[in-house]
Amino acid sequence: MLKTNHKLILASASPRRKELLEMLALPFEVMTSEVEETSVQASSMQEYVKGVALLKTRDVAKKVSNATIIGADTIVVDNDELLHKPKSREEAIAHLLRLSDRKHVVMTAVAIIEPNGKENLFVEETTVVFHPLSKVLIEAYVDSGDPFDKAGGYGIQTLGTLLVKRIEGDYNNVVGLPLAALFSQLVNLQIVQYAKE
């Protein structure tokens, strides 16, 4: 259905992003960046997530030529505060207690760097509403080990889905890659075309 004459590279170590991009059935390679995300300073959450996505994508773009690089960063924001990937059991429990019975926002910034160096950037936002969570459920979920490599301390595509009452927006965005919005951008930039049968 789709074709491209670009060499596509996904600048992400996330297996979830890789799985989502594979849905387009286009060939791509994975290259990870070695940048320190905490080096980004920004005046707002939107600017921060854009800055990190660009930093990762530029890092990979420096290593290859004649390729289109797609990079992304996903953050969980509660009351204009960033909830990082938890570093300890206590922090994971604190994140989830905080999100219990409330709304928060998941932002993913996607950067596309074309072979000529042109940079394209957008942010997709999804609102997530959590059920009221018991301490027993939170501790059992944290003890499963699932929260530790995930922004905000939960994965909507794994056991963390049990915590979620509803979402407003793109589900794939919460997983880590707003695929429909990315697809629109790639078509608009003429990186991806519809294949004739």
UniProtKB/TrEMBL annotation:
<comment type="similarity">
    <text>Belongs to the Maf family. YhdE subfamily.</text>
</comment>
<dbReference type="InterPro" id="IPR029001">
    <property type="entry name" value="ITPase-like_fam"/>
</dbReference>
<feature type="site" description="Important for substrate specificity">
    <location>
        <position position="16"/>
    </location>
</feature>
<comment type="function">
    <text>Nucleoside triphosphate pyrophosphatase that hydrolyzes dTTP and UTP. May have a dual role in cell division arrest and in preventing the incorporation of modified nucleotides into cellular nucleic acids.</text>
</comment>
<dbReference type="Pfam" id="PF02545">
    <property type="entry name" value="Maf"/>
</dbReference>
<dbReference type="InterPro" id="IPR003697">
    <property type="entry name" value="Maf-like"/>
</dbReference>
<feature type="active site" description="Proton acceptor">
    <location>
        <position position="73"/>
    </location>
</feature>
<dbReference type="GO" id="GO:0009117">
    <property type="term" value="P:nucleotide metabolic process"/>
</dbReference>
<protein>
    <recommendedName>
        <fullName>dTTP/UTP pyrophosphatase</fullName>
        <ecNumber>3.6.1.9</ecNumber>
    </recommendedName>
</protein>
<keyword id="KW-0546">Nucleotide metabolism</keyword>
<keyword id="KW-0963">Cytoplasm</keyword>
<feature type="site" description="Important for substrate specificity">
    <location>
        <position position="74"/>
    </location>
</feature>
<dbReference type="GO" id="GO:0036218">
    <property type="term" value="F:dTTP diphosphatase activity"/>
</dbReference>
<dbReference type="GO" id="GO:0036221">
    <property type="term" value="F:UTP diphosphatase activity"/>
</dbReference>
<dbReference type="GO" id="GO:0005737">
    <property type="term" value="C:cytoplasm"/>
</dbReference>
<keyword id="KW-0378">Hydrolase</keyword>
<feature type="site" description="Important for substrate specificity">
    <location>
        <position position="157"/>
    </location>
</feature>
